[in-house]
Amino acid sequence: MSSANARALRLNLVDLLRQPGTERTISLDITHEELGCALSAAQATILSPLVVNLRATSSTDSVEVVGSIVANWNGECRRCLRSVDGVSEMRFDERFVPAASSLGIFDEADITRVEADYIDLVPPVREIVMIDIPDAVLCAQECQGICGICGADRNAHRCDCIIEDTDDRWAALKDLRLEE
Ligand SMILES: [Zn+2]
Ligand SMILES: [Zn+2]
User: Fold this and answer.
1) 147 C-alpha to center of ligand 2: Å?
2) Do residues 56 and 11 make contact, with C-beta atoms less than 8 angstroms apart?
3) How confident is the model over 30-47, as pLDDT tens digits?
4) Alpha-carbon dihedral 110, 91, 48, 132, rounded to 10 degrees
5) 13 vs 61: CA distance, rounded Å
6) How far is the CA of 141 from the centre of ligand 1 (A)?
7) What are the domain boundaries of the chain?
8) Model pTM greater than 0.85?
9) How far does residue 70's CA lie from ligand 1's centre (Å)?
């Protein structure tokens, strides 16, 4: 079921802890399908395999994994619908300890407990990617969007349409006032 790439994201926790100071590097291209990423419809599409570069270093009681994940993506500007390409460079930095370890009991946030004899990096990598691939893409912060009346791309040219204030919150407020 799991691909060779997904298996390459596993580290033998027992071996690493047995030899403190051991370093392992993982460099691979992996598709978001192999990672099992389920992006929402609002999110950009990941274009090419993600580039993963991680380094694991063991100590006597934990394994620290640090590195980066890079993804190219394409999305549609939510205001003007123009196609937008982007790159997300994500930082990975996590510490893994055996489930039985007393390390970090008071500080769970920074530590991932591992039940198995190996660290599976697929879930934490997947989680970072799913959080980091943008939703609500904008071609530019100041994108003017498409005119709701004539359909013109207001980045390209100004139209003379007068856009009514259709903010629902204001409409609701007006209704309230009428009822008073
Ligand atoms: Zn736009
Ligand atoms: Zn217009």
Assistant:
1) 5
2) yes
3) 999 999 988 888 899 999
4) 70
5) 10
6) 8
7) 4-132, 144-180
8) no
9) 24
pLDDT for position 80: 94
Q: Could you give the 3-state DSSP secondary structure of residue 22?
A: coil
Task: State whether residue 2 is helix, strand or coil.
Answer: coil
Neighbouring-strand partners of residue 113 = 97
CA 175 to ligand 1 centroid distance, Å:
33
Residue 6 CB partners (closer than 8 Å, separation 6+): 30, 34, 35, 122
Torsion of CA 163, 164, 167, 172, to 10 degrees: -170
CA of 73 to the centre of ligand 1 (A): 16
HSE of 131 in the Cβ direction (CA atoms, 13 Å)?
A: 10
Q: What is the tens place of the pLDDT at every residue in 158-178?
A: 888 886 665 565 555 555 555
Partners of 114 in the beta sheet?
Answer: 98
Task: From first to last of the 180 residues of the chain, give the pLDDT tens digit.
Answer: 578 889 999 999 999 999 999 999 999 999 999 999 888 888 999 998 999 999 999 999 999 999 999 999 999 999 999 999 999 999 999 999 998 887 766 665 678 889 999 999 999 999 999 999 999 899 999 999 999 899 999 999 888 888 666 556 555 555 555 554
